[in-house]
Structures are given as C-alpha cells and as structure tokens.
Write a structure and sequence with these properties.
Layout lengths: L33 E8 L2 E8 L4 H12 L6 E5 L2 E2 L17 E6 L4 E8 L4 E7 L4 H12 L7 E4 L2 E2 L6 H4 L7 E6 L3 E7 L2 E7 L6 H8 L14 E4 L10 H15 L5 E2 L8 E4 L6 E7 L31 H11 L22 E7 L12 E7 L17 H14 L9 E5 L5 E5 L29 H9 L2 H10 L6 H19 L4 H8 L9 H12 L6 H21 L1
Parallel strand pairs: 1-5, 6-10
Antiparallel strand pairs: 1-2, 3-4, 3-5, 6-7, 8-9, 8-10, 11-12, 13-17, 14-15, 15-16, 16-18, 17-18, 19-20
Helix pairs in contact: 7-10, 7-11, 9-10, 10-11, 10-13, 12-13
This protein binds adenosine-5'-triphosphate.
Family: Belongs to the PI3/PI4-kinase family. Type II PI4K subfamily.
GO molecular function, one term: ATP binding
Pfam family, one: ubiquitin
Length: 571
C-alpha cells in the first residue's frame, strides 16, 4: 500500500484500536494479509490493524493522523531494529500478526515562546524546556534591550513564579506559549489641592547581573549533592594525549557539576543524552551519552526493550558501542592541514565536534538499579540554530554538504538523517553544517547505510579541488592504526568496512564521480535489494579462496571496483 492510499483525518482522542485504512476500505471483509500489531509507548499499548504490505511511511502516517505524532518525530523499533526505511514494508522487516512494535516519539528540547508586552511589543524565540521563567525574563531583556528581570510574567491570566519550568507550563509539545510581560510599578496617589497626582514609580534599579544570575534556571534544584559526582577521561593508552580543546571541555563539565549544575536530560533521541552545564549554569558545554542508556541497552530511559541479540538498532552495530563510534568519528575527522595536533583547537574537515570517552558519576542520570559510574562519550556542545530537519536544504552551501558526504561515505554511516546535522549561521550569515550523532558509523556491514544528503541537489555537484585533495590524503590503514592507538580494538569486519568505503570514495572521486553517485552505490534502494557495494564485496569474495588474507581480498575487491566504476563513468 502506498502512502497515497492513506486517509488523513483529524487527531482523535485515544482510539481503542487504530482502524485499518486500505484501498478497499468500503468492503466489509479484511484482506488476507491483515495483521494485528501492538504499538507500545511508555505506559500504553495500542492495537493497530495493518497490512503486511503497508509501507513504514503509511503506518507512520496513520499514527500521525490518529495520535497526532508528526511522522518525522516517530521512530518504530521491532526486534531490536529501527524500521528506518520509509518505503519498505512491514513484511520486509519481518513484522507479523501479534508482534509488538515500540514507538519512540521525538520531543523537541526547544519550546517556541511568543512573548507580548502590555505596550504591544512582540517577540518570539526558542528556549530549552528545562529553563525556568527567570531565565526567560533574562532572554527577553537581552532581545528587547531592557530590564525585564523584575517584571511579571502571566500565562492564561496566572502569574508565573521565576522557578516555574517552561516544560511544566507547556505540557503539549506543539503548543505555542503566550506570555504577557508586565513591568511592575507602584502607583502612588497623593492629594494635590483638590485633585490627586498620580505617579508611577518604576522599581529601584536592581543589580541586573545578580538578578540575571539568580534567574538562570535549570531542571533540578541547584547546589545539590555537591560531593556526589565525578567526571574523568577514560584513557586506554597513556601515550594518546588528549587535545587541549578536549581537556577544556572535560574541566568545564566537571566545574559545572562541582558548582551544583546537574546534567539536563535531552528529550530528543532514542538514547539517554545529557546536556552538561558549565560552572555559571547558563551554558551547555557538552553532551554526554552513557553506553548503558543507548537504545536497547539495560538502562535506556525511553523504555526500549533489551536488544535480543546484542545488535544495535542498525545492522552491523552493537549495543554499548555507540560511544566508541562517536569518538572514532572525531578522531578520524582529520583537519585539512593533515593530522590533528594535540595542542591546537583545529576542527576536522567535516567539523565533528570534539568528542572523547569519559566516566561520570552523578545521581541525575538514569539509575533504575542504583547509582553507578557511567561510561560514555562526551561531545562538545555546539551552539546552533536547529537541525537540517528544520529547514529545506536549498540554502545549504555546496561545500558544507560535500564535507558531510565525505565523512559519511568514509564511515559508512548508518544514521545520517537531517536531525543529525546541526546548522548555524556564522558571523557572515553563511550556513555552517555540524555533523553529530555518529553512534551508528563504521558498521560491520553496509545493509543499513542511509544518507539523507543523497536527495539534496548539492550532492550532484562535482567535488572541489580542495575536497579532492583531502580525499586523496586519506589512508584507511593509517586510520585503523590511529583508532588502535587510541584504544579501540576494532573487529576485523569494522576495519574492513573502513577499508572498503575509503577505497570506494577515493576511486570514485578520482573518476570525477559526485557524492550522489558514490553514496548511492553504498545505499540500498529497498531493504531487500543489495547495494552495489555489497554486490562488489560478494563478487570479490567469490573470486578469492575462503581462507585468503585480507590484503589479497582487498586486491580482488580493488579490481572488481575498478570494473564497476569504469562502467558507471562510461555510461
Ligand atoms: N554536539 C552537540 N551540540 C549541540 N547539541 C547536540 C550535540 N549533540 C547532540 N545534541 C542534541 O542533543 C539531543 C540528543 O542528541 P542525539 O540526537 O544525538 O541523541 P540520540 O539518542 O543518539 O539520537 P538518535 O535517536 O537520533 O540516534 C538532540 O537534540 C541533539 O540536537
């Protein structure tokens, strides 16, 4: 069934069963391939009739129409795997009668606030839901260039306390909160002859800085459990020195905990992700993703069930290895000038934010079975204006899209959707793309590779000479040694992925192929149809003896690849 067969209707209230909507919906009997599945959301089990041939997209559209969750904010998980391909169907993913699917709904960490003042000024801005009204006042003061710190903020006629959290006021994630800001003033009346003179006295000037500091808000009470925390880098090889920028991030996050600013859990994403605050409490300095809170890991805060076989949500990845992959993506994102120096602040070619492995103890993480130290990745928080999901791709600069494509092809990224590319405008107003969330990069197989940028026009433009120089400088063997040096005992299958994808990128770029042409060879059109790179690997495997060395296999693959690429070039 295609998405065109789906009837959209207004959001209904808690239907007991989502009805089947199919091409022959006017007939009484249900088609043979009808199955009954159950969707779980924390605390709810929703029965739903679907056809085995229903596409993932059409099922999500029905969830949207009956439950109100926008399609792009839904993630469906079955048997420990994300049903990520919208054009594949239920049968392709092995979903059958009676199966339970987990629905994870992405809720934005940001809330749109509309603020109106009594004198008619209006402003709109995004604020993190963990902030309180005191913080909102500070933002209004900044934007409107006044001092609103001691003003009153009303919502639906009720005065809001400075400590009230935006999240508590705005329960509905899609709601736009209207605030009325009223400057408080004392009205005094003093008799002057037979009349009264009215004077409006603005409150005395406050120490704005102090007031702003006091108004900065966060989810949990501050100054809590000051000694009950620790944050240390995990260093496997003492010879692998941490770059200064990483050391600074660790010490800022540690200072934040020491100052009583707890981690703030992100509401987005399928795993546990925590914004680590600096010492002032008004700045995020890092994002911590503990390995035991990854999707389908034992302490996942979204209630996803344990992985049945240890495999992650994407094929060829393992639960608990997301943090390693996040760190590997940073280490392998070499700067244009060559390999990253340990003291410089140099960003890599693709701009992966500095990422490292840490161990951290804090009661603010998800600890259903007692408070324990957690290991995970800490990535530098990057100020941004949203993600690529929030904006059409037309305005993204070509070279920004190309740098992400080079990274994704090298790492055979299995999770490159628009939500995993942050964007911000630099001082000249130019859009900069920031790749994040590399927990499903370097998989052991190519099955789940997906690159959102394949559908962007920039990917069809030729690589610049600068990008081609960078691609030429890449060396998979050197990369494998570098990861080993940093302590990742990479399985041979993962090392092979890196070798193959680097080889494909280099050979493709050498022949003048575009990011689209190379990336397309790595991605399956449908769940069941192998990609060209998978076919090439199979051909090379058939050409060598089973016990052959890795070097011989790679030589055979090189010949197979040359043959196929030359065919593409000559078409
Ligand atoms: N380096 C960063 N700088 C700023 N914000 C970040 C950074 N890394 C992650 N975030 C934000 O943190 C939130 C959760 O992160 P992320 O989406 O990576 O988590 P996840 O559970 O791995 O997600 P997914 O379900 O897409 O795999 C998102 O809102 C994301 O935009």
């Amino acid at each position: 069934m295609s998405s065109a067969d789906v009837t959209l209707s207004p959001v209904r209230n808690e239907p007991s069963m989502m009805p089947l909507v199919h091409a022959n919906s006017c007939t009484d009997s249900l088609p043979d391939e009808t199955i009954l599945i159950y969707l779980t959301l924390p605390g709810t089990l929703i029965p739903m009739r679907v056809l085995e041939s229903d596409s993932i997209e059409s099922v999500k559209l029905r969830i949207q129409s009956y439950r109100g969750f926008v399609v792009r904010n839904q993630k469906l998980v079955f048997g420990g795997r994300e049903l990520a391909r919208s054009n594949s169907n239920m049968r392709d993913y092995g979903v059958s009668d009676g199966n339970v699917l987990h629905l994870v709904v992405k809720v934005s960490d940001l809330q749109v606030l509309d603020v109106k003042t009594t004198c008619g000024k209006h402003c709109r801005f995004h604020v993190e839901r963990g902030r309180n009204i005191g913080y909102v006042k500070k933002q209004i003061s900044k934007q409107k260039g006044g001092d609103f710190v001691d003003s009153e903020v009303l919502y639906e006629g009720e005065k809001l306390e400075d400590q009230s959290l935006v999240n508590d006021i705005c329960r509905n994630s899609d709601a736009v909160l209207h605030l009325l800001v009223r400057r408080s003033a004392k009205v005094r009346a003093k008799p002057v002859e037979k009349n009264f003179e009215l004077s409006i006295v603005a409150p005395p000037q406050v120490d704005v800085k102090r007031a702003i500091e006091a108004a900065d808000g966060i989810v949990q009470p501050r100054k809590q459990l000051l000694n009950d925390f620790s944050l240390e880098p995990v260093i496997v090889n003492p010879k692998a020195k941490l770059p200064e920028v990483v050391k600074d991030m660790i010490s800022s996050a540690s200072d934040g905990l020491r100052s009583g600013n707890p981690p703030v859990r992100s509401r987005e994403g399928t795993g546990g992700a925590y914004f680590m605050q600096g010492s002032s409490g008004n700045k995020y300095v890092g994002v911590f993703k503990p390995i035991d809170e990854e999707p389908t890991a034992e302490n996942n805060p979204h209630g996803l069930p344990l992985s049945p076989n240890g495999e992650g949500l994407k094929k060829g990845t393992k639960v608990g290895e997301g943090a390693l992959r996040e760190v590997a993506a940073y280490i392998l994102d070499h700067p244009k000038s060559g390999r990253r120096s340990m003291c410089g602040e140099e960003r890599g070619f693709a701009g992966v934010p500095p990422t490292t492995m840490i161990e951290c103890l804090h009661p603010g993480f998800n600890h259903p079975n007692g408070i324990k130290t957690k290991i995970g990745s800490l990535q530098m928080f990057t100020e941004n204006d949203g993600s690529c999901e929030d904006m059409g791709p037309a305005s993204f600069p070509v070279e920004e899209v190309h740098k992400i494509s080079v990274l994704d092809i090298r790492l055979a990224n299995a999770d490159r959707h628009g939500g995993n590319i942050l964007m911000r405008k630099d001082e000249n107003g130019k859009i900069v793309l920031i790749p994040i969330d590399h927990g499903y990069s370097l998989p052991e197989s190519f099955e789940d590779c997906t690159f959102e940028w394949l559908y962007w026009s920039q990917a069809r433009k030729p690589y610049s000479s600068e990008t081609l120089d960078y691609i030429r400088s890449l060396d998979a063997e050197e990369d494998i040694s570098l990861l080993k040096f940093h302590g990742w005992k990479m399985p041979s299958e993962t090392a092979r992925t890196l070798r193959i994808s680097t080889m494909l990128l280099k050979k493709g770029a050498e022949r003048g192929l575009t990011a689209f042409e190379i990336g397309n060879m790595m991605c399956r059109d449908t769940l069941t149809k192998k990609s060209l790179v998978e076919e090439m690997v199979e051909e090379a495997q058939e050409a060598v003896l089973p016990e052959t060395s890795e070097a011989t296999f790679m030589e055979a693959l090189s010949d197979v690849m040359d043959y196929h690429l030359d065919e593409v070039v000559h078409v």
